[in-house]
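Lab channel / #folding
Pinned by the channel admin:
"Please post every new chain as: sequence first, then the structure tokens as a reply. Keep commentary short and put observations after the output so the thread stays searchable."

First post following the new format, from NK:
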Amino acid sequence: MDIMAAVGHREGLSKEELESINEFETSQLFDDKDRAVLRYTAEMTKTPVDVPDELFAELQSHFSDEQIIKLTAEIAWENFRARMNHALVYESAGFMGGESCKVPVKPTATH
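Reply from TO:
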């Protein structure tokens, strides 16, 4: 999330919001709409994807069908990029100086 953290920050997300993203369910920095989007994002990035009907209904209470389609496309695109970067063992480029959205430490890659 290095580059996207930098973009999010430029678009108005605070450093505190970026640092609290992993605790979005309990953080007071996020509202119900934010939590619905972040839950949807988490469900979309699982393999296999299985978004519960209740979550989709929650999204529909906040967004139009067109907005949900755009949101889904954005999440899918970022998931594609993240999976590609992980497969190719691309590391952070330092756009946020390691200050936000810290990536968990993982074992050294073999390729």
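NK: The first helix runs from residue 2 to 10.
TO: also worth noting, Residues 100-105 have pLDDT under 50 and may be disordered.
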